[in-house]
Amino acid sequence: MFFRSLSGRFLLLTLLFVLLAEVLIFVPYVARFREDYLLTRVERAQIASLALLASDGQISDKLAEELLATAGVYNVVLRRDAVRELVLSSPVPGPVRATYDLRESSIWLLMRDGLAAMFTPENTVIRLIGDPVQEAGLLIEVTMNADPLRETLRDYALRILFLSLVITLATAALLFLSVQTLIVTPIQRVIASMATYAKAPEDARSIIEPDSRVTELRAAEEALQHLQEDLTAALRQKERLAQLGGAVARISHDLRNILSTASLLADRIEGSTDPAVVRSAPKLLNALSRAISLCESTLAFGKAEEPPPRLTQFALRPMVEDLVDGEKMAAGEASCAVEFLIDVPATMMLRADPEQLFRVITNLVRNARQAIEATGQQGSIEVTARDKEDGTAIRVIDTGPGLPQRAKDNLFAAFQGGARKGGTGLGLVIAAELIRGHGGKLELVRSDEEGTEFRIWLPHGA
């Protein structure tokens, strides 16, 4: 189980990589050690032969044996002035098994021969060929036993391997402690914070406080902190929405009954002969009908169930004219400060839920009217509609003061995107949800000192 953890796997990889590095260093070291060992034997053999030559060969056999034993060779051959001369010699215990030319050996040959030398059989005789030191001849050849070389190489290799093992373990331990301190412990802290937060996400005290000094881990902690803050805010908002939904549902239930009574009374004034009443009665009945429908929808929304759109084919312009007339009446004396423009083709037919679309456009137009009225200056509101290849685009454009930055940043967030003092921002949230139910999209195109433009996009056949 230990090697399934991050620190365990890192420790294992560290051991493997350090050992691999040591092996890559070990082989050339062994090769170089063998070469130096053999060159030393050649130099000693040359010194022994020069001692013999300096005495004109007048040395005893015992002294010659001591010179060969000191050099660690069986015989020495010098080539001087194109003459090959056996300078020192002694009995060779066996045939020569291998010959090594030390003059032109490449690194690859040295590494191969170095590894092979550690596994040569006992009593193996080898011949060495090299250049004499100080150019004391053209060539020198020596014959020697490979056993001392094998034993020396093995002893050297064991010391190198032991040192490599110590370095590997020390390096792995230091790296393990570093990873444990700098990475694993902060990650465990993040995991513990997530577990604590999951038990009580509404409690702001369980939100993580970034304190890691590692850049990447601190970035992860900060991202987790933002996520937890957003989620906590969303949960609180959801709770407030649930409470609001219950309250609105109860109010809408009673309001629906009151409006139903008002609708029955409005039916009676349809028979009036007063021209003003005749013109206003249908609009009053339509307004009451929409209010009753809105109360019924609010009851469903209070249960977190916005009813799906009932798609029908209808003419868009009459509906826009109707809602504009309603806004003019709502504006009263202030209506002269707001100019309403309608640029919708009279023949344009739209397949959508007329009640839901009426609510969406009314919300946008009313927000624009209230924003212009709040400035105390004149302005205009224009509703346009155009058929495109992929759908229908409905735009609501005003010349108002534009939305404040806070409203733009939280435009479709309930209780956060209100542009007016005391506004809840629920209108745009509900409008965006209704448009999404049609498979479309409600978006803010622009909002600056020249005005605001919203765009409703509905796909064909929505």
Automatic annotation (TrEMBL):
Coiled-coil ranges from the UniProt annotation: 217-244
One MF term in the entry's GO annotations: ATP binding
EC number: 2.7.13.3
Entry-linked InterPro entries: HATPase_C_sf, HATPase_dom, His_kinase_dom, HisK_dim/P_dom, HisK_dim/P_sf, Sig_transdc_His_kin-like_C
Domain Histidine kinase: 250-462
Alphabetical list of SMART domains matching this protein: HATPase_c (SM00387), HisKA (SM00388)
UniProt catalytic activity: ATP + protein L-histidine = ADP + protein N-phospho-L-histidine
One Pfam entry name: HATPase_c
Keywords: ATP-binding, Coiled coil, Kinase, Membrane, Nucleotide-binding, Phosphoprotein, Transferase, Transmembrane, Transmembrane helix, Two-component regulatory system
Enzyme kind, highest EC tier: transferase
Positions of transmembrane segments: 12-31, 160-183
UniProt name for this protein: histidine kinase
Annotated organism of origin: Pararhodobacter aggregans
